[in-house]
Specification:
Elements lengths: L6 E4 L19 E4 L1 H9 L2 H14 L2 H4 L4 H7 L7
Antiparallel strand pairs: 1-2
C-alpha cells in the first residue's frame, strides 16, 4: 500500500521467557519501531544494533521491572561490549 507503518518489538526478547517468572509479553516491554530499525535490532552490524537497544532501554524503566541492566539486555542480544 506504500503507507507508513510500525512493527511491535519486545525489548526483552520473548525467547528469554524461561529465565523470568513474570510474563515478558506486556505493554511495557513492547516498543513500536519502523521496519528498518526493527530489522537493524535483529540483523544489523553490532554497534548499530547496540545503539538502538541502548536508546530504547533508556526511554522507559522497563529493564528495572525485570531486574535487568542495559549490559544484561545487550547480552541477551549478543551485542554486549567486550572489554
Amino acid at each position: 500500500s506504500s503507507k507508513p507503518y510500525l512493527e511491535a518489538h519486545h525489548l526483552v526478547p520473548m525467547g528469554a521467557q524461561s529465565e523470568f517468572k513474570q510474563s515478558l509479553d506486556t505493554i511495557h516491554n513492547v516498543f513500536c519501531l519502523c521496519p528498518y530499525c526493527h530489522r537493524a535490532v535483529h540483523h544489523a552490524e553490532i554497534g548499530y544494533a547496540r545503539s538502538i537497544l541502548e536508546k530504547l532501554a533508556g526511554s522507559r524503566p522497563v529493564l528495572r521491572s525485570f531486574s535487568l541492566t542495559v549490559a544484561d539486555l545487550l547480552n541477551l542480544y549478543a551485542v554486549e561490549k567486550i572489554v
